[in-house]
């Protein structure tokens, strides 16, 4: 990634409209996107390309129905470490993101050091995931697990603060 792509670019109303539409349907054709935003197809294609090249659009991915893929149980697992060396942090971070069922992993400040959002098939699979992949790491001193009852999408970052 170049230095220029790390500098936040000013997004105008058209850019924000394009991004909002793509967040709803990332597979939308350029023609449909242009019509929705109210610009010419060539302008839309140029804008999307510029948003990708600048790094504003990092990727477009499918959102899965976790029940449909056999992972109906979600949990947040908080991990506390005994050692905070860069080596332990980096190794554990790499290990946690590689766990089957890990939806997101955050290295956080506060009482805990990592927070994982996971999706599993059953309570037994959740137990096994924690025992086999997390508490078996030598730097982990404890975990706290919270079941997720429901997840709703937030407003996102395109609106004003």
Number of helices: 6
The CATH topology annotation of the largest domain reads as Alpha-Beta Plaits
The CATH superfamily of the largest domain is Lrp/AsnC effector binding domain/regulation of amino acid metabolism (RAM) domain
Largest sheet report: 4 strands, antiparallel
Q: How many structural domains does the protein architecture include?
A: 2
Across the major sheet, the strand order is 2-3-1-4
Overall number of strands: 4
CATH class category label of the largest domain: Alpha Beta
The helix-strand sequence is: HHHHEHEEHE
Model regions low in confidence, pLDDT < 50 over at least 5 residues: 1-5
Q: Residue-averaged pLDDT, rounded?
A: 91
Distance between the termini: 28 Å
Shape: elongated
Helix content: 25-40%
The CATH architecture of the largest domain can be named as 2-Layer Sandwich
- Tell me the fraction of residues in β-strands, as a range: 15-25%
Describe this structure in words.
- The chain has 161 residues and is α+β, with helices and mostly antiparallel strands.
- It folds into 2 domains: 3-53, Orthogonal Bundle (Arc Repressor Mutant, subunit A), CATH 1.10.10.10; 73-148, Lrp/AsnC effector binding domain/regulation of amino acid metabolism (RAM) domain (Alpha-Beta Plaits, 2-Layer Sandwich).
- The chain is built from 6 helices and 4 strands; from the N terminus they run ααααβαββαβ.
- The protein has helices at residues 3-6, 13-24, 30-37, 41-53, 86-97, 123-134; strands at 73-81, 102-107, 114-120, 140-148.
- It has a 4-stranded antiparallel β-sheet with strand order 2-3-1-4.
- β2 (102-107) and β3 (114-120) form a beta hairpin.
- α2 packs across α3 (30-37) and α3 (30-37) packs across α4 (41-53).
- Mean pLDDT is 91; it is low at 1-5.
């Amino acid at each position: 990634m170049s230095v220029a792509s790390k500098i936040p670019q000013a997004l105008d109303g058209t850019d924000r409209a394009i991004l909002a539409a793509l967040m709803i349907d990332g597979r939308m054709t350029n023609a449909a996107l242009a019509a929705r935003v109210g610009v010419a197809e060539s302008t839309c294609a140029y804008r999307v390309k510029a948003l990708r090249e600048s790094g504003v659009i990092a990727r477009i991915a499918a959102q899965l129905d976790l029940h449909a893929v056999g992972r109906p149980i979600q949990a947040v697992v908080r991990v506390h470490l005994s050692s905070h060396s860069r080596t332990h942090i980096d190794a554990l971070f790499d290990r946690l993101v590689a766990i089957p069922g890990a939806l997101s992993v955050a290295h956080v400040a506060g009482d805990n050091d990592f927070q994982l959002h996971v999706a599993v098939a059953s309570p037994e699979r959740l137990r096994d995931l924690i025992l086999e992949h997390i508490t078996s790491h030598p730097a982990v001193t404890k975990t706290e697990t919270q079941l997720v009852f429901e997840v709703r999408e937030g407003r996102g970052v395109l609106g004003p603060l």
